[in-house]
């Protein structure tokens, strides 16, 4: 499988599902981006995503040379030419990939899905959760062997 990765190597930071105070969050991002090795940031708001919020955070990412990825909202990502991360039930991958340079895909515990999505041109795939945690209560952990079994 040939890989044409459109994502940089480095730390991939994901936002919380809800941001209570946007100004405080933006200040925190400035600090983190200035003092860390974050190369990718995913805005993963599950409710109440406003286009203006995405644009403010995208601007901060651009200033720090950090790839901005929008989670789940293919229409907004396509409209603004953002990178996109999609799950199983989100916008059709082929449509998003035909319009965007960077489209990543959640593969959960499914190594076959990961291989299929990589073959179809996914910019990256994600697995997980690998460990039990409080944020993903009803999930069966992904085998650690997937890290070694998957090659893009």
Describe the structure.
There is one protein chain. The protein is of the alpha/beta class. It is built from six helices and six strands; from the N terminus they run βαβαβαβαβαβα. It has a six-stranded parallel beta sheet, with helices on one face. Helix 4 (93-99) links the parallel strand 4 (83-86) and strand 5 (103-106). The longest helix has 13 residues, at 22-34. It is globular. The protein starts with 10 loop residues before the first strand and ends with a helix. 24% of the residues are buried.
Main sheet makeup = 6 strands, parallel
Q: What percentage of amino acids are in beta strands? A: 15-25%
How many individual β-strands? 6
The succession of helices and strands, N to C, reads EHEHEHEHEHEH
Radius of gyration: 15 Å
Helix-strand makeup class: alpha/beta
Which properties best describe this structure?
152 residues; alpha/beta; six-stranded parallel sheet; 6 helices; 6 strands; 17% strand; globular
Short description:
The chain has 152 residues and is an alpha/beta fold.
How is this fold's topology laid out?
Blueprint: E1 11-14, H1 22-34, E2 38-43, H2 51-63, E3 67-71, H3 74-80, E4 83-86, H4 93-99, E5 103-106, H5 111-119, E6 124-126, H6 145-149
Parallel strand pairs: 1-2, 2-3, 3-4, 4-5, 5-6
Helix pairs in contact: 1-2
